[in-house]
């Protein structure tokens, strides 16, 4: 992208400027000299217009048969597949992760679109016998209305698709606020939806800050559900904003995920898993492997292999096919990483590799940090308890599987966990006793697929799940229906038929 383009909000089927007449730049985190575009810095007035548009469009969209809504979503998947490579390259330039990963991000949006297109003919309810004669009973899903979607920058097309596609197939309309670091990928997704035939007002895109867009969006009484992915701190604010009106809230928040390495693990495989889980997306995933809990019998061998592999990772611009890890998303996130490295050293953890910002040569205009591993980490250290969201992994020794599980469960989060072992007994014990929403055996803590529910326990979420059919429960409500054709008054629980 050689020319700086100006991008607009999408409200009621039109690309429009923000009422504030203010904009912000979107820069490449690998090379901040590159401006990818100028986007609208929207305000509350823009949010109200978008909500009004969605509210009006809902009157017709909810009446469109679900299979017909699904046909449009299917076309979204088809168009995304054709434009995948171009969108992936733009996404890498926008948020930094390597091209293989951005291709995967868009593929996930494709997969979710195809999956939810199928749900247009599978929004199954229940039928069940009545306790009374000549009476029919069933349940059906019904849409909620206007849905607000506030999404993060680390998966700028995949995560919006997790929210957008189930919301649309259920018959809702949407106001979508993307992260300020990744508005271009959001624009690309919305353009595809428009091209696929989503009617005017059904999808509305408003770019801008959390205070300018996110807060008025979550406060609006016309928004029936707020689906938010981000930090636990902000998720609490979303919950508090919606609580007075009892509006629905779906929260997908932080994680402090752990791989457990048993004494009978395939260590080469475990190292590869820890490397991918810890440094994929530069550690900027809610499911990233930020802790590796290793049995002391194999601790020395595992740690040596892990450190050697981390040191060999090639860091740089994600558009380079040889690069294995890109930059942090922005200066503030990089500062957070460096702050926690300092905390880890002060706490007494052993810095085994990394620990520094990269500033010379090809790194001088980007937000690059070395892959960093701490050893001899106590489970209660801050680096083992608090989400860092960067390329920092803590190796924690343990004496047994039971202790490993105890350490794994010993945080305020509960998103993802994993075990490497050759024992079926150990695998099933860990699977049973680890209190997380996602669990892997002989795989890292990342790698979820769209047809199973995604989400976590404790302060990772509020009980809801994304992806799979579980996503339909976020964006619909159940209605129980009773049809009495007896032509007389029958009283359930009172009229008992004995003969």
CATH topology tier name of the largest domain = Aldehyde Dehydrogenase, Chain A, domain 1
Estimated share of beta-strand residues: 15-25%
Number of domains: 2
Main sheet attributes: strand count, strand direction, barrel closure: 7 strands, mixed
Strand order of the largest sheet: 14-17-18-13-12-19-20
Which CATH first-tier class of the largest domain would you pick?
Answer: Alpha Beta
Query: N-to-C terminal Cα separation, in Å?
Result: 79 Å
CATH superfamily of the largest domain: Aldehyde Dehydrogenase, Chain A, domain 1
The average pLDDT is 97
Number of strands: 21
Describe the structure.
The protein has helices at 44-61, 66-95, 99-119, 158-169, 183-196, 210-219, 232-242, 267-279, 299-311, 331-347, 382-385, 401-409, 424-433, 470-474, and strands at 9-11, 14-16, 23-28, 31-40, 126-129, 135-143, 146-150, 173-177, 203-205, 223-229, 248-252, 257-261, 289-295, 350-353, 357-358, 368-369, 372-375, 392-398, 416-420, 438-441, 476-484. It is an alpha/beta fold and 499 residues long. The protein folds into two domains: 9-253 and 461-480, Aldehyde Dehydrogenase, Chain A, domain 1 (3-Layer(aba) Sandwich); 257-441, Aldehyde Dehydrogenase, Chain A, domain 2. It has a seven-stranded mixed beta sheet with strand order 14-17-18-13-12-19-20, sandwiched between helices. Helix 1 crosses helix 6 and helix 8 crosses helix 9.
Top keywords for this entry?
alpha/beta; Aldehyde Dehydrogenase, Chain A, domain 1; Aldehyde Dehydrogenase, Chain A, domain 2; 7-stranded mixed sheet; 5-stranded parallel sheet; 21 strands; globular
